[in-house]
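#structure-requests
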Amino acid sequence: MQDQDPFDSAQGKPLQIPIEGTLDLHAFAPRDIPSVVEEYVTEAHTAGFREVRLIHGRGIGVQRGIVQQALERHPLVLQFFDDPVSHLGATIAILKS
């Protein structure tokens, strides 16, 4: 699988990512994860989602920590927890109504 560049190099502008209930973060560079999570949660909330799933992978937990720190700071997140079926590979966030 090839990493997806978050910018459309032909147009020089950000790619539009469809807002769904799950976001796989493997396509993003670690440095971009906090801003991607922040924007995704905001847009998911605007679209009416009250629960979202962020896939960060298991590894040694670095991405998980980055994702959960971003969720902890986000004003629209009520709570978050490890997705029990992913064996620490994803985090579920509950958003405010």
